[in-house]
Amino acid sequence: MTNSFSHWDKVYTTKVHEQVSWHQDHATISLDWILEVTQPNDAIIDVGCGVSVLADNLLDEGYSNLALLELSTTALEATQKRLESNLDKVSFYNQNILEFFSKKRFKLWHDRAVFHFLTDANNQQIYLQKLYDYLQQDGFFLLATFATDGPTQCSELDIVQYDVAKITQLLGERFKLIKTTAELHPNPNGGAQKFNYFLLQKQ
Predict the structure, then answer these.
(1) Element (H, E) at 200
(2) What's residue 88's pLDDT?
(3) I want to staple 175 with a disulfide (CB 3.0 to 4.6 A). Which of 64, 128, 150, 200 is the partner?
(4) Long-range contacts of 41-45 (CB under 8 A, 24+ apart)
(5) Would you indicate the residue range of the signal peptide (predicted)?
(6) How confident is the model at residue 5, as a pLDDT?
């Protein structure tokens, strides 16, 4: 995974935000699962939020303790502007997840396609240690990655594909798999991308 803030700033500066391949007009599986396992006052972090409307959807449901982490300053500023009437309910982190620091601990950690950019095993372990350290006991990890028959690259970067066996082996005994599902995500520019979703609980 590139550590370059400039790479992702270029993506969000040169592309129409609604036309990036991962865009959703309304959060789907992520929103449904978050509503199932959390309460509106629970602390939730969206890692690699981009300009996602997941935060908007959660605010509409009465959530009031959200954190958004994003490498791209451009994307984060666009999201801040969009959510300006709810800034008292949202914290913003313009950080690389591998260097993440916060005084908060979270009930749910959401990642829709950041982790699969970590192609280096050492970086994967740094990420997972951050996840474990900042997730509350019995907290939830909601992860979406490209499926094993999905894309092999995104935004000109290599990715790692995951299925149930691969993700559970990587996470080990510290997390219990609650459920998983597949999604065929329609690309705004045409075609579709195959994602796998995993909901896990810290043990």
Answers:
(1) strand 192-202
(2) 98
(3) 200
(4) 41/65, 42/107, 42/108, 43/67, 43/104, 43/105, 43/106, 43/107, 43/108, 43/136, 44/106, 44/107, 44/108, 44/109, 44/110, 45/69, 45/104, 45/106, 45/108, 45/109, 45/110, 45/134
(5) none
(6) 57
pLDDT digits over 59-108, tens only?
A: 999 999 999 999 999 999 999 999 999 999 999 999 999 999 999 999 99
Residues near 43 by beta carbon (within 8 Å), at least 6 away in sequence: 65, 67, 104, 105, 106, 107, 108, 136
Q: How far is CA 102 from CA 14, 113, 149, 181, in A?
A: 30, 21, 36, 31
Encode pLDDT of 158-179 as tens digits. 889 999 999 999 999 999 999 9
Sequence-separated (6 or more) residues with CB below 8 Å from residue 51: 12, 17, 75, 78, 79, 82
Q: Which domains can be identified in the chain, with CATH numbers?
A: 5-202 (3.40.50.150)
